[in-house]
Write a structure and sequence with these properties.
Mean pLDDT: 84
Number of domains: 2
Radius of gyration: 22 Å
Shape: elongated
Structural class: alpha/beta
CATH class of the largest domain: Alpha Beta
Oligomer: single chain
Strand order of the largest sheet: 12-11-13-16-14-15
Strand content: 25-35%
Length: 398
């Protein structure tokens, strides 16, 4: 049974103006937690629950959220909430719940002289068995055809890819939509900074005339981790670069770090970061219970190992280019099991540009000057990587 049911209200035409969310309130009694959203008009909505961890998810027709950041503003049974564009045409609100609940009511209240249209959601306590029984899987995380396709050995200088007039580079702006990433100490969240930097990198690469650039996202939109990998494979990419900006409890830590894939993390901090980044799909309200990580089985394959070797070589080149131009962490090339780096036939690197928990890093990364400097440095690193590949200087033993 679908918790809360499905309601079909006024359907917006393609010509209709965007609907805005202008307010959010959470109240509680001894037996109930109520969430209220104020909207400029009614929209379609769909409510469901997800387990492991406990979440209540509400999908709406696409909305313009004008209520600031979500985050740690919960109350009652709601410990946290977040929202954003889940896919074109659909906005998503995800509520992190601290115990099993049932959605006892979900409805709209018509506007009056005092209030606009309001969406109301009531939560009541239940037991784990009842919660799981009412849980549904709204988004099936399926293998794309590219994940099941044969994997060919990667060679940046002699494979069929070398016949292209332009190298294909996939730039992945971390997080997005309902997944905000790290909050920024200077006010700008990670998802916005990563998109700005990704666009700057695209501009720098395209301006050389040597590259075709594919963006995993070019707007504030959520993209599942597996789909990011699939985009790189579908375009038969020569290189995949994912850009992020982390946060730590220690607000004094700052500087950039480059990560590549490894079955064993280089250190505890790298392992913790990978675990956090790998939860992006859970944050966005996707059920991963039935997903089998078929890519992980390829990790021991020789082809995957060869690709990982090329990833390491590009990471080393990138670190070399970053030195002297941006602040780097100690041991600036680290390793961990990032899901977004698991394309078996595309060299993949994750660049943590700095720490948004540090005010200096957060303020700097939000400026166009720093973003352009990073983009130019990445472009130079990519140039250098392919120059070394053609010259046979990458030192890959296979």
């Amino acid at each position: 049974m679908l918790a809360g049911g499905t309601n079909f209200l006024t359907t917006m035409s393609a010509e209709a103006k965007s609907v805005s969310v202008t307010g959010v309130r959470i109240g509680e009694t001894n037996k109930k937690t109520r969430l209220v959203l104020e909207l400029s008009e009614r929209v379609n909505f769909n409510v469901f629950t997800l387990a492991n961890p406990y979440r209540v998810v509400i999908d709406f027709d696409e909305l313009d959220w004008k209520i600031g950041q979500g985050g740690d503003k919960g109350r009652g049974y709601i410990s946290r909430y977040r929202y954003g564009l889940f896919k074109p045409g659909t906005s998503r609100l995800v509520l992190d719940i601290d115990r099993p609940v049932k959605v006892s009511k979900s409805f709209f209240i018509a506007a009056n002289h005092k209030y606009p249209d309001r969406f109301v959601l009531d939560l009541e306590k239940t037991n784990h068995q009842t919660f799981v029984k009412n849980t549904r899987k709204p988004v099936a995380v399926t293998r794309s055809s590219s994940s099941a396709s044969p994997v060919a050995a990667f060679d940046p200088s002699f494979s069929g890819k070398a016949k292209r007039t332009k190298k294909v580079i996939v730039i992945d702006a971390g997080h997005g939509g309902v997944d905000p990433g790290a909050p920024g100490a200077a006010g700008k969240p990670e998802k916005k900074i990563t998109l700005e930097v990704a666009r700057a990198i695209r501009h720098a690469l395209v301006s050389t005339g040597r590259y075709k650039v594919v963006m995993t996202r070019d707007r504030d939109l959520f993209i599942p981790l597996r789909k990011r990998v699939d985009i790189a494979r579908a375009h038969d990419a020569d290189l995949f670069l994912s850009v992020h900006a982390d946060s730590l409890d220690n607000k004094k830590v700052r500087g950039a770090t480059v990560y590549t894939l490894s079955e064993t993390a280089s250190d505890k901090e790298a392992a913790k970061l990978a675990a956090k980044e790998n939860k992006a799909d859970i944050i966005a309200g996707i059920d991963l219970g039935t997903e089998t990580d078929d890519v992980s089985g390829i990790l021991i394959d020789l082809v995957q190992r060869e690709t990982m070797n090329y990833s390491v070589r590009f990471a080393d080149v990138l670190v070399g280019q970053l030195k002297g131009k941006v602040l780097l962490r100690t041991n600036s090339h680290r390793f961990a099991g990032f899901r977004v780096l698991k394309a078996p036939d595309v060299p993949s690197v994750l660049l943590e540009m700095g720490y948004l928990s540090n005010y200096q890093d957060a303020k700097s990364l939000g400026t166009r000057q720093t973003q352009r400097k990073l983009a130019k440095t990445v472009q130079e690193a990519i140039d250098r990587y392919f120059e070394k590949a053609y010259a046979g200087q990458l030192g890959i033993d296979g």
